[in-house]
Design a protein that fits this description.
Length: 346
């Protein structure tokens, strides 16, 4: 698997590529599949169809890795929170957590058990996926999950969870501890079901000042990395802390691949972290609206990375109105260009 080779820092014949949110609304076949079951959560819970959604970008784009079709928020859902996805608004928890009593009602063990539909989707996908393509399992980082659980939905200023952080840090730590324990079992079960790599999404990493981030977010990610390394030494570990460029050199831990969001200059990330970690990223997602913008962006990234210790990706998820043919153009262009750079360097 070229993707796993690259995660482990081995030389490959081209730079492997996949796209965050590659299974999703920009694909007409995804929209049909979702309509056939009703809504997004129903699709997540239907393992056969979730596997189908996972495989769509493989046949449509020929990316080097599939990411299991699910969502980071199924974990708090299955811990006992009530979740809905509202068109035009996004995810909403009807009863956010703001005290110990509410937290005590949530169960890590139940979540690990109830998430069977994700494990089944991974098994079905692995059976149908060609052996040279990697299968990525994923989860939200404890901080990002806690943020949704306390805010109840997407948030502009994260005031509720930050109020908890400063006025009742023990409560937030208790929540992060419980989430981290649930994630250990959830990640292990995903790997046992066939995931070759695990990506930990810390989408709201950029919401905290550095020391708060290190204490309330990174320490738990680091613990998860150690847990995976120890119990599943062959599994590639990818972390994606979005928007932390200003203090990226402090994000040391036992992972393989560091996802770089588009707001961070890749050259700086490479100078600071590239010797120790493989880097993933970081094309600005809106470049996909225009093929010239794709070429310029790819050229710049490949000229920095030179086909070494790099996995190509967007610097955040693909947007729903991107033309599929532009995504395909990106994949082909990266593969061709990177293969030339690598062949020339030999
Ligand atoms: O293709 C893939 O990447 C795999 C599936 C995947 C989804 N969500 C499917 C999805 C993954 C890896 C995620 C991760 C996720 N979910 C994150 C972390 C990555 C990031 O974008 O920062 C976050 C923060 C979420 C929470 C979430 N889920 C939000 C905020 C939303 C609404 C916004 C939106 O894009 O609609 C979702 C819904 C969601 N998750 C959709 C998909 C395909 C769209 C649902 C639909 O209408 O079909």
């Amino acid at each position: 698997m070229i993707f796993i080779d690259a995660c482990k820092g081995k030389a490959t014949k081209h730079t492997p590529i996949w796209l965050m949110r590659q299974a999703g609304r920009y694909l007409p076949q995804y929209r049909d599949l979702r309509a056939s079951v009703g809504d997004f959560l129903a699709l997540c819970k239907d393992s056969q169809k979730a596997a189908q959604a996972t495989l769509q970008p493989i046949s449509e784009l020929d990316v080097d890795a599939a990411i299991i079709f699910s969502d980071i928020l199924v974990l708090p859902l299955e811990m006992g929170m009530s979740l809905s996805f509202k068109p035009g608004i996004g995810p909403v928890f009807s009863e956010p957590i703001n005290d110990l009593k509410a937290l005590d009602k949530l169960s890590a063990d139940k979540a690990i058990e109830n998430l069977n539909y994700v494990y089944d989707a991974l098994k079905i996908t692995r059976e149908q996926l060609s052996p040279d393509k990697a299968l990525i399992g994923f989860c939200g980082a404890p901080w990002t999950l806690a943020t949704y659980m306390v805010e109840g939905s997407g948030s502009k200023n994260y005031a509720n969870v930050k109020k908890m952080l400063y006025s009742n840090p023990q409560l937030l730590h208790s929540m992060l501890r419980k989430i981290t324990n649930a994630l250990k079992g959830y990640i292990s079960a995903q790997i046992n079901a066939g995931a070759d790599a695990i990506q930990i999404f810390d989408s709201w990493a950029g919401a905290l000042e550095m020391n708060a981030y290190l204490e309330f977010a990174w320490s738990y990610i680091s613990e998860l990395c150690d847990y995976i390394r120890k119990n599943h030494p062959n599994t590639a570990i990818i972390v994606f802390p979005k928007g932390v460029g200003a203090f990226i050199e402090n994000l040391q831990a036992g992972y393989d691949v560091l996802g770089i969001s588009w707001d961070m200059p890749l050259k700086i990330a490479k100078d600071k972290m590239g010797a120790k970690y493989v880097l993933q990223g970081n094309l600005e997602p809106c470049r996909l609206y225009d093929t010239m913008a794709i070429e310029d962006g790819v050229d710049e990234i490949l000229n920095i990375m030179r086909g070494k210790r790099h996995i190509f990706n967007l610097g955040h998820g693909i947007l729903p109105d991107i033309p599929v043919k532009n995504a395909r153009y990106l994949i082909d262009y990266v593969r061709e260009k990177s293969a030339k750079i690598i062949a020339k360097a030999k």
